[in-house]
Amino acid sequence: MAEASFRVPKKKRRVYESYEAPFPVSLTQEETSSKEHEHYYAEMMNNSIIVRKPEDMKALYGKGYFGKGVLSRSRPDYNISDPTLVAKWKDANPMHMPIISSTKFQRHVDWAKSLLQEEGLEDSFIEKMLENYTKPIDLPCDKRSSNFGDSSQEINVDYSNVYATKTESDERAEETHNGENHPVASPQNKKLCLEVDEPYDPLAKYGYVDCDPIDREALTKVHCPSHDDFVIHCGCRYQDAMKEALQHNSIKDSKLSTEHEYVLVVEKVLPCDDKESNRKLEVTEKLVCKRNPFKVFEYLQLSLEEAFFLVYALGCLTIYHNEEPLTIIKLWEVFSMIQPGFKTNYMGYHYFRSKGWVPKTGLKYGTDLLLYRKGPPFYHASYSLVIEMVDDSCQGSLRRPFTWRSLAGLNRTTSNVSKELLLCYLIKPSNMTDEEMTSPECMKRIKVQELIISRWISSRERTDQEEL
Q: Catalytic: 206?
């Protein structure tokens, strides 16, 4: 039998976040109880484990990459914004608020309307409620003074004018308006307003308040203090400015100003008839701030193995079902009913997670788990893992009985994605009873044997022999 050669994990080319230390693994139950650490809560819903609180979602994913966002590919950072609209209006969105189209906003209004209709409310009352709820909100820029040489210039920009896409006739009208000594909502004034407004400057917290104008390219290299995403793509920086704008608009209900989600809606503006101009005016667009009537919530979904590891091995998670906490024995029983191979999968998950790997589901590659070094954002998966439970003589009813053809096909699939096929055999003592298997304490008597499967290439073997 040839000796297995371990490959160096393949690092990803672009890494957009920093590594955070994972949860510590406590070796004994006394050590777990003596340590003071944060505790998190999850809910069992439709045979899935869901974490709702944003701070719990951030901690569980950041410290070990547990779970994935139900609306995201991995990290639970779903944003309602349309990326194409954000890129188009990046110069007119200093507060980095979510931007959506009017069609999408109307869809959210329809969802909210249907939800209110299910509660038995009258249509006239619903229409009035939604009309008052979704009316536009003004976002005036602060009036600040900025010294340029010997003169002092006060800048006042109306966002309703700044956001509009102007035509040539609109620009001529603004020049005429300027003759009456009124402030002009020009791009230059907008730029100056952003430079002197510390709350709107994403680099303010990094010591660049009184420096040069905001560099858009620099924003792509600065991380948001709330999470590991870049500031330029972050949607959480408009909250402070939104609260200030709401206070300016005399909204007294502070609870309302913090619970609702605010978005910028791209609306079309019909041109006015211009009798002096013979050419046809184009339809313009502007951004209007409104409340989102139907907010889509992002949750963190944990796999059964991840949830049980956090409950049993780390002791930092409590799972509720119908507002009642579930014990470890109850979870072991319920998870085994939901997923017939849960016990076998979890033993393999527990073994490799304790060794420092980050296991994730390997369903898309036809295996049980994928093993990552540090986490999926930093490295590609190194191994595709197949877990089987056998007895002392390596015999047993295998969940995945391989033939030579199926094994060769799985090995070829694994090699094509730059991974290695790893077989993990859980060796159960012959005298272990079924009653012992009803508790996770049975893992103390389980032995583990690892086997790496590699394809033997005769031409490469001959070349190696000739070199020797």
A: no
